[in-house]
Amino acid sequence: MKSGSNLEAILEAGHFAFTGELGPPRGTNGEEVKKKASYLKGMVDSVNITDNQTSVVRMSSWAACIILIQEGLEPNFQMVCRDRNRLAMQSDILGAYTHGVRNMLCLSGDHQKFGDHPDAMGVFDIDSMQLINMVKQMRDEGKFLGGADIEDPPKIFIGAASNPFAEPYEWRVHRLAKKINAGTDFIQTQCVYNMDRFREFMKRVVDMGLHEKCYILAGVTPMKSLGMARYIASQVPGMDVPDSLIDRLKGAGKGKVAEEGIKFALEQIEEFKEMEGVAGVHLMAIEWEHRVPEIAERAGVLPRPKP
Amino acid sequence: MIVAKRKPFEEIKGLIKGYNKVLNVGCGTCVAVCLAGGEKEVAVLNAELDMARKLEESPIEVGALTVERQCDREYLEPLDAIVNDYEAILSMACGAGIQFVAERFPQTPVFPAVDTTFIGVNQGVGWYEERCRSCSSCVLGMTGGICPVTMCAKGLYNGPCGGTNKGNCEISKDQPCAWYLIYERLEKQGRLDSIMAFTPASKWENQVPRTVIQPGYEKSKADATP
Ligand code: SF4
Ligand code: SF4
To answer: Which domains does chain B have, with CATH numbers?
Structure first.
C-alpha cells in the first residue's frame, strides 16, 4: 500500500469503489459541512472536497477535509493549480497529511475568469501533470520539488482527472497514459453522459493496458432537472450531453425529471460495474448530498466493504 | 514587436495636469509600427491636448520629437539639448523606452502616454495579437511552434486541460485552445512523441529583472560598471 487510505485498500482488494463529493460552504459554517457529510457517511469510500470549485471562493479544501476526518469519513483533498504556487502547494500537502488526509485529486482548475474574482492572477506555477509528479516525488523519494529531503514524507494516494469528452479525443487516452507515468494511482473521470463515447474511450484504455496501471472511476452526476441538463449541455466546457438524454428527461414529464435522472445514473452504474477497466464510480451529487443514501441503496453498492 | 495602445485621453490629460510646457516623445520602432506611439500619433495627441487645454483656459505648449528608438541610448542624445526647455515629458514608447528616458533625465517628471500590452504579431492593419511572454526558456520546438505559455489561458506545459470546448479554450468560444492546435500540428507533422513525454516544472526566470549579455560582449558591461 502506498498510502494506507481506505480508498486504496478498497481498490486494492478488488472491490468496486464508490466515492462521493462535497462542496465546502461560502463562509465559516462548519455545521454545514458536517450536515452534508452525515448524508455520505457509510455510503461512500471517500469524499472529494472541492477546491474553490468553478473559481468561486469557499472554505479551503484541506480545512473541510479535517472536519470530515473528525466526523469519521475519509476525504479526498482536491487541489487545483490556479490558486497556489509550488511552495504553498507543498506546505498544504504537509499540513493536510499531518491532519490525516491520505488521498488527493490533482487538477488544473477552472480558469479564474469564470468565478467571483475574474480579475485575479491565475497562478499555474505548475500544471496538474507536474503536481501529480511532485506529490509522487514527495511520497516515493521523500523529496520536495526543489530537491531537499522531507522529514517523514506524506504518503498520499494520488488521484487525477481525465475527460474523455473533450477534444482532441484521440489524444485524451495518451494524456491519461502521461498522467499515469507521472504518478497517478487513480482516475476520476469527467461526468459521463455520452455512454457511446465512454465505451470507446474505455476500449482504448483497456487495449493500451492502462487499467492495469491505475484504477479508473467513472464520473456520474444525476440530472436534477431539464434546466440543469440543458445548462450542462450548452454552458459547461468539456461536457458532452447527448440529445437523446435530454429527450428522455423531457419525456419523463413534469415532476418526474429528477427520478428519470436518477434512473439514468443507476443504469450507468450497472453498466460500469460490468465494464472492463472500470474500477468504481465517482458520484458527484453536488448540492444533492441528501439523495446519496437513496442512490447508493438503489445502485446496490451498500453496505460499503470494510477493507 | 512590442505592441502598445494609447492610454485614454482623459488619463493622459490628468497625468500632465498642472504642467504648461510638456515634451511629447514618440518612438519610431515597435510602437510606430503598431500605430500607438510614432510620429503621427505624437502629432495627433499633441493636437488633442492643445485643443482641450485651450478649452479649459489653461493653454499648454506641447513639443514633439520622435526618436528612432527610445530603448537605445544613442538615439536619446538629441533630447539632451531641449529637455530643459520643458517641465515634463510624455513618452509614447513602450514601458522600456519610457524608463530609459526617465533614467536619462532623473530631474524631469516622465509620464507614459501608452499602455504597453504584449509581444505580438501584425495580423492586419491595426490588428495585433499576442504571441510571446518572453519566458526565457522557449519550448516552441516541443510544441510545434505554438506557445503554451502565452496561448493557453492556464499556461500549461502538459496540456490540454479538460475544458477544451469544440476546439476552443474554456475561456471563450472565440479563443482557440492552444493545446488543441498543438496536437493538430504535431499530429500532421508526425511528431506527437514530442508532447508524449512529461515536461517538468518550469524554472521561472522572469521573477527578477533579467540581463542578457551576448557571448563576446562581457567587456561592454564590465567597462560601463564603475
Ligand atoms: S515558450 Fe512562449 S513565452 Fe517562452 S520564449 Fe517561447 S514563445 Fe516566448
Ligand atoms: S482549453 Fe486549451 S487553451 Fe484553454 S486552458 Fe485548457 S488547454 Fe489551455
So the answer is: 2-119 (3.40.50.2300), 135-207 (no CATH)
CA A263 to chain B, closest CA, distance in angstroms equals 27
Please say whether the beta carbons of A232 and A241 come within 8 A.
yes
Q: Structural domains in chain A?
A: 6-299 (3.20.20.220)
Which ligand 1 atom sits closest to the C-alpha of B132? Answer: 8
Q: Mean pLDDT, consecutive 10-residue segments, chain A of 307 residues?
A: 96 98 98 98 98 98 98 98 98 98 98 97 98 98 98 98 96 97 98 98 98 98 96 93 97 95 98 98 94 98 94
Contact assignment for B158 to A127 by CB distance below 8 Å: yes
Name A235's bridge partners: none
pTM value surpassing 0.90: yes
Given a contact cutoff of 8 angstroms between Cβ atoms, the answer to whether A222 and A214 are in contact is no
Residues in contact with ligand 2 (CB, 6 Å cut-off): B 152-154, 156, 159-161, 163-164, 169-170, 177-179
Contacts of B143 in chain A (CB under 8 A): none
CA A281/CA B31 separation, integer angstroms:
56
Atom 1 (ligand 1) nearest CA = B138
| Residue type, position A213, single letter | K
